[in-house]
Amino acid sequence: MKRGETGRYEVTRVGGESVRAFVPHPLPPVPPLAFDATLQRALEAAVLALGRLDGVSTLLPDTALFLYAYVRKEAVLSSQIEGTQSSLSDLLLFELNEAPGVPLDDVVEVSNYVAALDHGLARLRAGFHLSNRLIREIHAKLLARGRGSDKDPGEFRRSQNWIGGARPGQARFVPPPHAVVQECMAALERFLHAGDEGLPVLVRAGLAHVQFETIHPFLDGNGRVGRLLITFLMCHAGMLHEPLLYLSLHFKQNRAAYYELLDRVRREGDWEAWLAFFLEGVQTTAEGAVATAQRLGDLFQEDRRRTEAKGRRAGSALRVHESLKARPILSLTGVCEWTGLSFPAASSAMELLVEQRIARELTGKRRNRLFVYDRYLAILSEGTEAP
Predict the structure, then answer these.
(1) Rounded (5°) CA angle 291-138-228
(2) Taking the CB of residue 81, how many other CB atoms lie within 10 A of it?
(3) Residues 6+ away with beta carbon under 8 Å from 266
(4) I need a labelling partner for 311 at 20 to 30 A (CA). Which of 160, 170, 235, 326 fits?
(5) Are the CB atoms for 201 and 124 separated by under 8 Å?
């Protein structure tokens, strides 16, 4: 439905230029959303896929293993949308205090994303409301170190920003003037807390994401916070017990359509077209996560059977295999810490896994060697190839 522009323009001056900044109307949309049969089917399919995703713990012996790596995959993807070149293996190496293969700022940015996600989920699980205060806390974690740390972490902006273009007059989009950011975010917070519009949680999440991206309340990091907001909404509403829904891959693979649909909402008020895209992303992403969990479960079982077939040598090797499931890149010292094995026993067990082509040595060195669970990391890394 084309409702016309979903906000008003205010002329403001920035960088010596006059620009038209867009101030969105509060949610929910007016007139109300039109749920035709196609959109209703998309919603039902997305909800069904989410339900299957929420039961993903039945596919893996330890959901925490999947969460550890899947959260990091999302961090890589979400940061890649902003232009970083870091890979999943770069992040895992960085967390081992090893030198990654990309500029340090890139991998620090991804590491900050993991910290921001962990902080937000911990706060929600402790009973804290999804609020502007929590959004600012998440932003502070996101920009705590490295690139963007000079852009007022944890504070709504006090100056005008713009999207696209070298200067404001060339911008693709100019968000609200800083003087009304607090007002816009207060209205968004009221929408997040309201429950009387009869809108399904997934629809509310889709609307809130667009509104947040339109307000662009921070000087930096808005895209990453806006994508995190979707996951936090799902967990806060109880649709997901674990943070397993991440749409960054969908947005990355359909970047042009994503930005065009955001603009169409602002220009024409076509929320339904955006929601169709959003719900399709929820469905495909959730189904992809379930399929990945199933593949990992099959991989772990297959490699365990192959290791068990080695008879007396299998005992220690199975313990090392478990440590690689927890951390797919590890040093022998790390293996000893995880398993309690002596260094010689861990080394011998790892050599068996290398012989089986389950693990591979990364460094080519005789000392301080690192080992990677190749097929595990390959499955997790699908879609994270640098753009």
Answers:
(1) 30
(2) 17
(3) 5, 6, 7, 22, 24, 173, 214
(4) 326
(5) no
DSSP 310: T
Residue by residue, pLDDT tens for the chain (387 residues) are 899 999 999 999 888 889 999 999 999 999 999 999 999 999 999 999 999 988 875 566 567 777 888 888 888 888 888 878 888 888 888 888 876 666 778 888 888 999 999 999 999 999 999 999 999 999 999 999 988 899 999 999 999 999 988 888 889 999 999 999 999 999 999 999 887 678 999 999 999 999 999 999 999 999 999 999 999 999 999 888 888 888 988 998 999 999 999 999 999 999 999 999 999 999 999 999 889 888 988 999 999 999 999 988 899 999 999 999 989 999 999 999 999 999 999 999 999 999 999 999 988 888 889 999 999 999 988 887 755
Point out which residues pair with 18 in neighbouring strands. 13
- Is the omega angle on the peptide bond into residue 32 within 30 degrees of 0, that is, cis? no
- DSSP symbols for 47-63: HHHHHHHHTGGGTSS-H
| Domain edges within the chain | 7-292, 310-381
At the second CATH level, the architecture of 7-292 is Orthogonal Bundle (1.10)
pTM exceeding the 0.85 threshold for the entire prediction? yes
Backbone φ, ψ for residue 35 (5° rounding): -95, 90
Other Cβ atoms less than 10 A from the Cβ of 102: the count is 18
Question: Which residue do the tokens 């017990």 mark?
Answer: 241
Provide long-range contacts, Cβ within 8 A and 24+ apart, for 315-321. 316/341, 316/345, 316/346, 316/348, 316/349, 317/349, 317/350, 317/352, 317/353, 319/349, 320/346, 320/349, 320/350, 320/353, 320/359, 321/353, 321/358
Q: Give the containing element (helix H, strand E) for 71.
A: helix 63-81
Interatomic CA distance for residues 51 and 337, integer angstroms = 37
Report the C-alpha gap between 109 and 103 in whole angstroms: 10
First-to-final CA distance of the chain = 34
- Its CATH class, for the domain covering 310-381, is mainly alpha
On the CB side of 222, CA atoms within 13 Å amount to 19
